[in-house]
Every structure is written in C-alpha cells, then in structure tokens.
Amino acid sequence: MAQPPSSHAAPASAEAAEAAFYEALQRGDLDALMRLWSDDDEPVCVHPGGPRLVGVAAIRHGFEQVLADGALQVFPERVVRTVALGCAVHNVLERVQLADADEGQRYALVLATNVYLKGPDGWRLVLHHASPATAHEAAELLAQHERLH
Amino acid sequence: MAQPPSSHAAPASAEAAEAAFYEALQRGDLDALMRLWSDDDEPVCVHPGGPRLVGVAAIRHGFEQVLADGALQVFPERVVRTVALGCAVHNVLERVQLADADEGQRYALVLATNVYLKGPDGWRLVLHHASPATAHEAAELLAQHERLH
To answer: What is the pLDDT of residue A143?
Structure first.
C-alpha cells in the first residue's frame, strides 16, 4: 500500500523535519522516524534518563523500545531556534501524554535538543538529547495555556 | 593585570572553543566562560536537572550559581562529533570531580551536548544541554581507562 507522500519526501526545512519527527512518534511509525536521521555521520540520541546511543542502528533499537507499547503522544512546544546556513538547533519542551494518567498528572514534560543539518537528502536529525523538564517549564507552559484559553 | 591571551582570542575551531569552555570552568573564570557564548541568537543552556536557561543573561546567572562554591573540575571525554560547514555538534561525557567525595565515588558523570556555530568572532557556543549519565557510560569510561592503564 502506498505510504503517504509526507513520509518519503526529503524534508525541505528543519521545521518540516521536526514536524515529521513528532508525527512519526505519534503514529508509532519507526521506519518514517528513522528516515529522518542522517546516516552520513555518527548521530547521537539520548532519551530521558537513558544511555547515549550513537549511530543509526543503536538509535533505531532505542526507538523500538520507546514504541514497544504503541505510539507516543508527544507534542513539541515553546521551541527556541538558532539557525545558521545548513544547520538548525532547536530546543523544545515536549509534552508527553501519559497512557496510565492519574487524575493529578496527565502528561510528562521533557526538554529536548534537536539538531538538524542540511544534506543532499534534505534536512536530517544528527542529534536528539532529551532529559526531564522541571517545575520551571511546567509553570511556563501553564502560564502560556492560561493566556491562550 | 593582563589576561592570558587564550581568554580573549576568538576560538579558531569548535575544538578550541570547547577546550576554552572546560578550562574556564576549571579556573572558575566566569568572564572567560561567557565570552565563548554567541550573543547573536538566543543561546540555550540546561544544567543537569535544571531549568532551561535562554539568553546570555540567564546563562551567566546560571553559571554564577554553578561556580558559587569555586571552580569546577570537569573534564570532557569520549567526544562524538558531527561537523558541517560553520557548525559543530559535540556530545561529550563530562567527568565532574566531586569536592566532598566519599571513598566510593570520586566523580559524577554527565552527558552534555555542545553546539558551536562559526560567526565573525570565531566559533561560539549556542547550546549546552547537560543531563546525568547512566551506568552504561560509567562502564564505557571504566573500560577505556582499563585499556589505557
């Protein structure tokens, strides 16, 4: 069956690559997720509290484990961008919906750095470094939501 | 009194900027440390377990707190580099010597992502994202030291 075109198109910008990255997690689509990584270099991936994964094979294995229980409802917010020619450095606040949510806590907050480089096949991830966010970011997000609603 | 020239020279490479960054921490030299940051953009700094700091003023304040008890004996090891034109993405294993070390543990291990961009004033930091390392990295480092000694 044909894949949706967005899964195979070379990302034309770091924003497009980042949107595709979080959409792939939300669909639990490991192949689409892995197509977004650069295979030229030694990409690096750190999940919150996890070890450093270097290279696409280790990174793929890591995401297999992340997605073992199904898709991940994770939404990037409050992106801080630094952009140069052919390089984009994003730091995002990830809101991760918890499957077995108690009344009190519906989601976890994660700080993630995503670095994209532009290569012959469009913009690709070379690094994802995620770690738990703090009460500071939770308050920041809450304040933003209260302004919006 | 004259500063050593290394403190003011524009870093000619990402490696030079990274060396100067860790040397400034080791000397507890906040001014030298802050000269290594880009002031063009909104640089981002995350200390292990800490909030996201955006902009040089917040980053300076964060390092003031880090250095409040004196210099930090921190050594970067096992650097994984991805380099593009004008952009360098490093992930390092920081070995941080603990002041009040017990017999058992002499240092803490931290995973840090350092991103450098080349500007008119040489290579500058635009992002430092640090989080606690794991038993995996401790074992990796131990294995390396055993090979060397």
So the answer is: 87
CATH of the domain at B108: 3.10.450.50
Residue with tokens 């696409």: A56
Question: In chain A, what residues touch B41 (CB-CB under 8 Å)?
Answer: 82-83
Q: Is the complex ipTM higher than 0.85?
A: yes
Closest CA to A45 of A53, A56, A35: A53
Q: pLDDT category, B105, cuts 50, 70, 90? A: low
Which of A43, A82, A115 comes nearest B42 by C-beta? A82
Domain that holds residue A125: 11-148
Share of chain B above pLDDT 90, in %: 74
Residue-wise DSSP of A26-84: HHT-HHHHHHTB-SSS--EEE-TTPPEEESHHHHHHHHHHHTTTS---EEEEEEEEEEE
- Chain B residue with minimum CA distance to A41: B82
Residues of chain A in Cβ contact (below 8 Å) with chain B: 38, 41-44, 46, 48-52, 54, 80-87, 89, 91, 93, 111, 113, 115, 117-118, 126-127, 129, 131-134, 136-137
> CA of A28 to nearest chain B CA: how many angstroms apart?
26
Please indicate, yes or no, if residue B35 is contained in any of the structural domains: yes
What is the reported pLDDT for A21?
98
Q: Is residue B4 part of a domain?
A: no
Q: For chain B, what percent of residues have pLDDT higher than 70?
A: 91
Q: Is residue A107 part of a domain?
A: yes
pLDDT tens column, B41-58: 799 999 999 999 999 999
Please choose, from the candidates B29, B34, B89, B23, the residue with its C-alpha nearest in 3D space to the C-alpha of residue B59: B34
Chain B CB contacts of A127 below 8 Å: 82, 89, 91, 113
Q: Which residues of chain B does A117 touch, with a Cβ-Cβ cutoff of 8 Å?
A: 82, 84, 87, 89
- Tens-digit pLDDT profile for residues A94-110: 999 987 656 656 889 99
Q: How many domains does chain B have?
A: 1
Phi, psi at A40, each rounded to 5° = -80, -35
Q: Is B3 within the bounds of a domain?
A: no
